[in-house]
Design brief:
Layout: H1 3-15, H2 19-27, H3 34-46, H4 50-63, H5 68-80, H6 84-97, H7 101-113, H8 117-130, H9 135-147, H10 151-162, E1 165-168, E2 171-174
Helix pairs in contact: 1-2, 2-3, 3-4, 4-5, 5-6, 5-7, 6-7, 7-8, 7-9, 8-9, 9-10
Length: 175
């Protein structure tokens, strides 16, 4: 089977939540490249095998250090392991390659948890500039404002996250 077909078939299995089968297909590949190591690492992350996930993602990084998703997933793993400095480094690497919403929001969450609200807000604002109604980020911003005892502002973001109000280019829309 060609590498392209192997990856396509494995992605189909992943979408069907057949992680064990997808993992077996990828591990049986005669030659592993950055994409295959990335998929193997991502599957291990999905099933909670963090050390194996990290090992395969680092192999992927060695072969291609321009895949922002590798660094995002390494940031997630570091965060789960409570290594927040490593998580920040990896999210910043991901953002440098591609200012993706998920890495920006995760980095903002870490800074918010460290009570570094100015830095957190910097990253949260970048997310909300790209997607004003991003639920996870609105929820995080709302919770951060609650921590800061700015309850009215926090409630506005919580309501936006829960879908009770929506912000559009024309202003606020109550649902």
């Amino acid at each position: 089977m060609s590498k392209e077909n192997l990856i396509r078939d494995s992605l189909k299995l992943i979408n069907e939540k057949k992680f064990t089968e997808a993992l077996q297909n990828l591990q049986d590949a005669p030659e592993k490249d950055a994409n295959i190591y990335f998929l193997i690492g991502s599957i291990y992350l999905s099933i909670g095998k963090l050390d194996l996930a990290e090992e395969n993602l680092k192999e992927s990084e060695k072969l291609n250090n321009l895949n922002f998703s590798v660094f995002h997933n390494l940031g997630i793993i570091a965060g789960i392991k409570k290594n927040f400095e490593s998580a920040k480094i990896n999210f910043l690497k991901a953002i440098k390659i591609n200012e993706n919403i998920d890495s920006l929001s995760e980095l903002g969450r870490i800074y918010s948890n460290e009570n570094n609200f100015d830095e957190a807000l910097k990253y949260f604002k970048k997310v909300l500039t790209k997607d004003l109604n991003h639920k996870k980020t609105n929820l995080r911003v709302g919770n951060m404002y609650f921590q800061m005892n700015e309850h009215k502002t926090g409630l506005k973001y919580i309501q936006k996250a829960t879908g009770l109000i929506r912000f559009t280019n024309n202003g606020i829309e109550i649902i």
